[in-house]
Every structure is written in structure tokens, then in C-alpha cells.
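P.,

For your records, the input lines for the assembly:
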Amino acid sequence: MTSAILSVDKLHKTYQGKPLLQDIGFTLGEGEILCLLGPSGSGKTTLLRLLAGLERPDRGTIRFAGRDLAETPPHRRNFGMMFQEYALFPHKNVWENVAFGLRMQRLPAAETARRVEEVLHLVGLEGFGRRAVDELSGGERQRVALARSLAPRPPLLLLDEPLGSLDRLLRDRLTGEIRLILKSLGVTAVFVTHDQGEAYSIADRIAILQESRLQQLAAPEELYLRPANRLVASFLGLTNLVSCTLGSDGLLHSPFGRLPSNLPGVEPTDAGTLLLPPEGARLADDIEGQQPGLVIAGLVASRVFQGATYRLVVDSCGHRLAFNLPLAPRPPEAGMAITLVVKKGSLLLLP
Amino acid sequence: MTVRRLLFLPVVAFLVLFYGYPLCAIFLHSLLPEGRWDPTGIARLFTSPVYARLLWFTTWQALLSTALTLLVALPGAYVFSRYRFLAKGLWQALLTVPFVLPTVVAAASFSALLGAGGPINTLIMAWFDLKRPPLAADQGLAVLLLAHVFYNYSLVLRLVGSYWSGLDPRIREAAATLGASPWQIFLRITLPLLLPAIAAAALLVFVFCFTSFGIVLILGGPGYATLEVEIYRQAIHLFNLPMAAALSLLQLTINFLLMWLQARLGAGKQLAFFTDTARDGDVPAAGWRAKAAIVATLLFITALLIAPLAALLAASLQGEGGPTLAYYRGLFSGGSDALFFVAPATAITNSLGFALATTVVALCLGLAAARHLAAKDGAGSAWWDALLMLPLATSAVSLGFGYIIALNRPPLDLRDSLAMVVIAHSLLAFPFVMRCILPALRRIPPSLGEAAATLGASPGTVFREIELPLIRRAILVGAIFAFAISMGEFGASSFVTRPHTATIPVAIYRYLSLPGEMNYGQAMAMSSLLLLFTCAALLVLARAAGKRGETRR
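C-alpha cells returned:
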């Protein structure tokens, strides 16, 4: 990784006595795309607004390129920001919207024109300059907003749920496009979203914000495969969490049986959590050979067809677990007994 | 933010100096007339039967006016909120005329319609072959009530009508599917939902009629006086300043009580009487009953609104020997040696000058106030909001009176200053301007300014590049309002103008109270000019409002 260009240290922010952000610290390398991911109310938008200078932290520092930004108002930071709902200027056309930041930099008219055309081309909106913004579709507005924030070539781009108000299909297409555009320009970016899929496909690294704290900061795969704690795991949809203890026999005692304690994850303790990934289970009959694993016998509570997989909810030993199983062999339907094996290698120990 | 705060200070200073200070002067004058504690003036208000009768008359004429207005306007509100008919927009535009029509013009119109030489009397005399006009009408209670209905009809129609058309029709449909008959739906669903709007409108009408000045002064005749008229009479004719101050104090107290009541009713929320009502769920009239209702409503509006205004225009062109332009010519020529003579041409230039100055001052104050209130960190903005609206609810006559007793000596001696009129008009106009601009400012999402800031725009640039263009129409509407208010203002002007600073309404009043056909004709001619000006202003207003619709996001 290149050296850190943005560094945030011990950031605190409260609003009306309620903590919004507590002890936030991270660094970001040049050209890196960071996603702030978390449920609504987790403080991710607040963090973005602090970076933009639209709000002031109660404590802590934000440094960019070695400079403390505490006393720099937003219009002197030269960061780009893309807003939720885009905040396009309704009284200006596409061209004027995109040119706004360049005009603020007092660039010569010719240079401004060149840069506007360039960035409109980049987002695939050549020839849209004269359009009024209220004539644009949602996707086109989103592109204009991106173009407007990119035009002044900001050293840091902040994006606040930029795809939030688009429909699913458009969203999936634009997520990929945004990453391509950002990477082609080599922009350093912080991207706020509540949608994991979006975060996985755009980010180099993902910061999970929950309960006003930074819970984990990791690359997408690592995040999903090794969530740091129960909170992160359940936010990512990894809900098969059961308590386990370290027995005097040196084995882990779980409701579904004993396991060797050398599982991936944290060191086993007296009160740990065992994560059973939803993709980790197979029907017992379907296992070839004798793969070691955790055997789960129970009743099928529901079976829902989901396209590529079945979503199976199973009640076993007082726990309700959910697994994604292949279409064949067909798992039993609701009300039937079932025996599953969860591969040992896929289990994870959480604190 | 700090600049915004700083710009709000002049507004506060203006309010303190030109609202608070005159009111304090009234207070002091009524309780300490000679600089000593002497509440006998106040005491006389409550002991003398003369003032009890005055207060009683003021109250019951207002009550009666309100009841009459509701009676005729509610059916109209139904028709306008429910049906689509020919040239509805035009009728709605016509209904806005009384909002900005100067009271003096309205009074002159009714005098023209129902006066001795007016069309109604002439018609009746011709039909029944009478020698003398049957209606001694321009001086009487009936005319006064009629003029109040004229003024407030469209207010009720718009307030209640827009609320009515805003009611979700699905509520009625739901009631129907649950088995309610149309009559039951009206009684149990529509009426209870409408009641807040009706109550708010009624209270507003009551306040207007209670503080009615020009109408009563001109049409009421010597027999009828409201509190406002009596304040004027005591101060100007009898020069009994302590008594006038005592009456003003009473009037102000009642004003504030009514205002408080209005706030309690949440009536302020329904005050948006300049919203476009075009979007209502109009249905085409089906069946003879609906058609009859529409025709009856439109006929009524014609009789109530158009007839007096037409009579005014006719009277301004009608001499004893047939059609003539003599009155208009008279406005711009000749003079008189009479005491208190006001040259019409002077009055017209005065009015235009004052109106222009008022527009500028009121725009600055209104914009600064609106920006303060719209800021999300605007301290105590709900409180300020109410406070800034106070001048609107304050009797203009009392204000004018306060000005002449407070601003006539050091430290603030404005007796001979032209600024006095402008200040009074600005005080009455800027809350309107603020009301026009504030919703437009609040509609701007904060993210627009923030987006501009992240793109490098300083707060000043954000105001110039983002806010100002987006509230341009609202500013235009506010400016027209301010201009029209200043052109038509009579209550305060009747105190603060001097012969050489007289405005058009003041001049009209003078001409109406002088004998002679020429004077009456010139009053009609000047009123007609003011009427035409008002209509022109409304036209611009309607176009501005129309264009505002186009640029909606």
C-alpha cells in the first residue's frame, strides 16, 4: 500500500448528548477506495460530513496530506462530494452544474470547457450539456453528480450513498462503472453505503461502522470470511452464531457437539462464539467420504427457492440456523427431518 | 452563518425603533399623559357609556360581517374546490383583486355603485318613477357590511376552498364504501375536517373587520364609528391625544389577544392564501344542480366584486352632461387654495416614490429576516417568526398615531422627513415579503449549499449563485406585494403624511370628503387609476407565480 494520505485519529462527535461517532481512527492510502458500511444511524454519513468539513468534530483530528484540517472550511478543502439525491442545482443545466467547481477555481473559460467535456465524456454523457437537470432520468442525474464532483479533480472524493435512490438493476450496473471510473482516474475516495453488495464491488477496503464505532476495517473478502465480532457478522448476514465454551478436555463444546479447538479465528476462551457460515453446510447424504465436520440434525422450518440456491431454515438443539444449499440433491421441505454437515474448515471462532 | 446573524441585526433594530418605540409611546401617553401617572383617560373608557357603545358597535359589526361573509362564501368555496368550469383560472385571478385593493378604492367603488347618482339608484328611480333616490346609501350600515363582505369573501373562499380541495377524496370514498350517504359524509367527515380552516378564516375575517378603518371612515358616515375611526377622530379632529392613546392601547390589547387566539388555533398554518389552488380535484359539473350552483356562484361574484369596480370606472368617466375625461384632466392641472389641499399630481408622484422606497426597504428587511428564520441554526426561530408577524396584526391607525407622538421629537424627530411614510409602509410590508420568501428559502435543500461549498463556493458565493436565483420569483412576488401595500396603505398614512407628502389614498379621502361634483369625480378618477394599477400588479404577480410552476424540480 502507498503511504497514507488521509489519516483520521480519535474522532468523536455527539449530537444532542447522543454519541454519533466514538474514537474513530483509520488511514487511507493514495488512490485507495474505502467504503464506510453500516446500518442507518451508525454514523457513517456523519463521518463523511466531518471529512468534508460540513460538520466539526468534538474531538480528534483529520489530517490530509500531512495538514490538519480543523480550521479549514469546506470550500477551502477542495474535496469533491457526491450527495445523496445528488443535490444538483435545479436552476443550472448539466453543463453549468459540472462547470461550477471549475468556475470557483477561476479556471480560464477554454480550460473549463475542455474539462467539462472531458468529464462528461468520462461518465458517458456527451452532448447532455444543454439539458435541464429536471429532464434527466435518475441514472443520468447520478452521472451528472459524479461528473460535477470529479471535474475539479479533487484529491479526495466523498460519496454519500450515491446509488441509494436508484432501482436495483441500474444500481448493479452503475456500481461497476463507478469503480472503473474512480480507478481509471486514480482518485482517493470514501464511499458511504448501507448495501454490502455495493461495498464489495466498489471498495478496496471496507470500514464497518456500528453503534457509532469502527468495528472492523478490512478488504472485502477478509471481512466476509473473518468478521471481527458478532456485531459485524450479523450485519453481514452471517447470523448462524452459537455460543461455545472451552472444555477441560481441551475441546470446544458447542450445542452440536465437540470440536477441536484449533479453529480459525480468535483463540478459544470460556465464552466464545462459533460462526457457521450459511454456505458451509451440505446434506449428510451428499458428503463423499468422511469429511470432518459439525453434524446438525433438526427439522426444516422453511425452504425457499432463491434461484441458484435453496434457503433453508433449520431448527436444531434450540437454535434456528439458515443455510444456502445447492438445488441438487433437493433438500427436504418444511416439516421434514434433516441432517447437515458443516465443514470444519469453514467454521470460525469469534470473541 | 455569522454574516447572516449580523444582517439580522438591522431587522431587530428597525422593529425596536419603529414598532416597539411607538407602541411604548402610546402606552406612556395613555397612562402618563402629562408625564405624571394619570389613568383617568383609561378609566373613562370603562366608565363612559359612549366608549362602551363604541366598543360594542365595533364588535358586533365585525361579528355580523364575519357571519355574513361565511354564509355567502362557504357555498362558493364548495363550488370552487369541487368543480371545473369555464375560465376558472380567470375567476380565481379576479378573486385575488380584493387582497391588494386599497380600502379607499373599495369604499369609493361602493359609494359609486350605491350613491345618489349611482346606477342602482338611477335604475330603481327609472323603474318605479321616483323623484328621489331610494337608497341614501353611501352612508349606512348596510353598505358598510356589504363592503366588508366584498373584502373578505375571496379570503374565505380561498382559505377554505384550498383546504377543501386539499382533502383527500379517498377519505370520502372510504366513508361511502362503509355505507355513509352523501349527506352523512358531509356532516361527519368533510365538515369536521374543514372546521379548523373555517375557524381560522372566520377569526381572520373578524380581525380584519374589527380593525376596519378606511371602509368605516368613508362609508359608515358620522353615525358609525369603530375603535379605529374613533382613534383617528380623537387625534386628528379633536386633538385629544391622551384619549386617542387610551383608545389605541385598548385596540392594541385586543389585537394581541386575537393574535394569540389565532396562534392557539394554529391558524397561522392556513395563512398561505396565495397558494395555487389549480391542482384541486376538479370534476366537470354534471347534472343541473351542479350547473345551477356554478352559475349562481359566478353571478354572485359578478354582483359583489365586479359591479362596484365597474361602477367606479363608470363614475370616473361620467359627468353631468355625459361621458367626460374632465376628472382625469383635472388631476393633472389646476390647483386650489383650500386648506389641506392636496394636488393630485403630487399625490401620485408621492405614492410612486414612497412605494419604490418601501419596496427596497421591505425587501432588504424581509430577505434578512427570512434568511435568519430559514437557517437551521437560527436561534429561537419559531419565536422570531411570531414576533416578526406582529406588525401585520397591529392596527395601522394605532401605529400611525404612535409615530406622530413618538417620532416628533429628539432623539428621533422625523416630523418633516419623507422617511416617516416609507418607514411606516415598510413596517407593514416587510412581514409580507418575509412570508413570500421564507417558504421558497425553506424549499431549498441544505445539500445544495453544501454541494456548492464542497465545490469551492464561499458562503457569499453560495448565496449569490444558489439561493438568490432559486428565490428570485418569491422576491419578485414580495416586491410587488410591498409596492401594492404601500400604494394602497391608508390607516397609518392618514397620520404620518403631511399635505406635501400626501399619498393617493389620502388624497382620495380628502376629495371624497369635499363637496362638489368635480371633487367627487376626481376622487373617482384617482381611485380608478389606483384600481387599474392594482390589477396590473396582480397580472404581473400571476405571471410570476405561473413561471414559478415551470421551474419546479
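Two observations worth noting. The radius of gyration of chain B is 24 Å. Chain B is about 75% helix and 0% strand.

Regards
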